[in-house]
Amino acid sequence: MKNILVPIGPTENAIKTLQYAIDFAEFMGSDLYVMQAFTLVTKAGSLANVERAVAKSTTNQLDEIVGQVDKKGVSLTITAYNGDVVDGVRAVEEQYGIDLIILEPKTTDIREEVFLGDTSGGIIKLTNIPTLIIPEGNSFYPYKNGLVAFKSGIVNHESILETLIQFKNAFKLYLNLLLVKTPKYTAEDLVLNPILENLSDSLKTTENTSTFEGVLEHFQTNQPDILIVFRRKRGFFTKLWEKNIILKREFRCSIPLLVLSVKK
After folding, report:
1. What's residue 264's pLDDT?
2. Is residue 91 scored above 90 in pLDDT?
3. Which residue in 4, 38, 144, 246 has a CA-CA distance of 20 to 30 Å to 79?
């Protein structure tokens, strides 16, 4: 896991999220890229140095944030992007090649009841980069117990399991697999991909109306240090992601949440 991206927003928790990312990167031996997006709309013929000035101001703000954390010798690159944050993530990924995104769930949303804000929700919905979401109050420590929840053992693109393999190997992670049989499951869904099966230390099959409800039912039993789900066009957060914002009353997760790439 060479390159990790941390999109930073103007939140009180930004420093803690960045420190978590640095501690994580130090453990993994990764390089860190810190990005903040800004929006500057100029009239036709406006001077290009206006954008440069705003970009410089944004970079200075990032420098201030970085100055308040312990970098621990981690290689850290700061970048400012003029435009939508999702486009900024894509631009950084294209330039550097990003293996993982680390972000806080609320980003710019200041409402206390919000778990996943509009910006962070958009990043997860509209990109296909593995993303580690760090709820407020978490400090990094090596994970020991992981819960992987999914509704089909089919993996059409086995390369997406690479991130899970890296987590498994780096942390010596005990992986509990939770296969949720939803109403429209097929016999093929119950057959595990061999690589996924080999990563498993335990496997439980349950019947629920959705993967999301399966996790809610079995979360306390497993008591994981990290929850792992697969990104799907309409999957784990199907009911919740009709919009980008997810409220805490709809999904309570106080531990890191790893969202892998599209599995099927």
Report:
1. 56
2. no
3. 246
| Closest by CA position to 135, among listed 168, 175, 106, 98 | 106
Residue that the structure tokens 């312990």 belong to: 70
246 closest CA partner among 101, 132, 121: 121
Q: Are 119 and 23 in contact (CB under 8 A)?
A: no
Closest listed residue to residue 240, CA positions, set 255, 225, 226, 229:
229
How far is CA 181 from its chain centroid?
25
91 phi and psi angles, rounded to 5 deg: -65, -45
Alpha carbon 216 to its chain's center: 19
Query: Binning pLDDT at 50, 70 and 90, where does residue 41 land?
Result: low
Per DSSP, what are the bridge partners of residue 100?
4
Residue 110 binned pLDDT confidence (cut-offs 50, 70, 90): very low
| Angle ∠(200,201,203) on CA atoms, nearest 5 | 70
Q: Could you tell me which residues are beta bridge partners of residue 36? A: 80
For 152-203, how does the pLDDT look when each residue is reduced to its tens digit (9 = 90+)? 899 888 888 999 999 999 999 999 999 999 888 899 999 999 999 999 999 9
Handedness of CA 81, 83, 89, 93 (dihedral sign): negative
Place of tokens 């810190």: 34
